[in-house]
Amino acid sequence: MGRFLPADFSQGDPNTIGGYRAAHDRPPAFEGSDGASYSVEIAADATGNPERPFAAYLLFVRWREHDPVAVGHIETDYMAFGGSAEAAVAELGSLPLQAARELLNARIAESSGFGLPDDNGSSR
Predict the structure, then answer these.
(1) Number of domains into which the chain is organized
(2) How open is the CA angle 92-94-97, to the nearest 5 degrees?
(3) Residue 6 lies in a domain
């Protein structure tokens, strides 16, 4: 079952992805332009490039309607870089929520049928 934790706005700016997660202790969530529910996480990968060893991107998880089961996902391209995974994630964490929503809707528009249960949803 769900739990209620009051937001702690001293932990970060709730209008950014990282600040929202820190203040609310959960990832931000949006309704996509396709009518589906998505939550967003910041993920990072090693790049193999010694000049930019880690890169962060947004991972939007699509949820089944009326059921807390993930049925697909959408990823952005790499959006931030750092000397460590934590540094790249922290940099991308300052992205405003509205910008994240716009990126989600742009990815949905780019790929019709995205996020269906039999689709892995990867766009990166």
Answers:
(1) 1
(2) 100
(3) no
Q: Which contacts qualify for 59-68: CB closer than 8 Å, 24 or more apart? A: 60/30, 60/32, 60/104, 60/107, 62/32, 62/36, 62/37, 62/38, 62/115, 62/121, 63/36, 63/37, 63/38, 63/39, 64/117, 65/36, 65/37
pTM of the model: 0.82
pLDDT tens digits for 42-96?
A: 999 999 999 999 999 999 999 998 888 899 999 999 999 999 999 999 999 999 9
- For residue 18, the model assigns a pLDDT of 95
Alpha carbon distances (Å) from 103 to 1, 56, 95: 30, 14, 11
What is the residue range of 79's domain? Answer: 12-110
Q: Token match 């090693």: residue?
A: 46
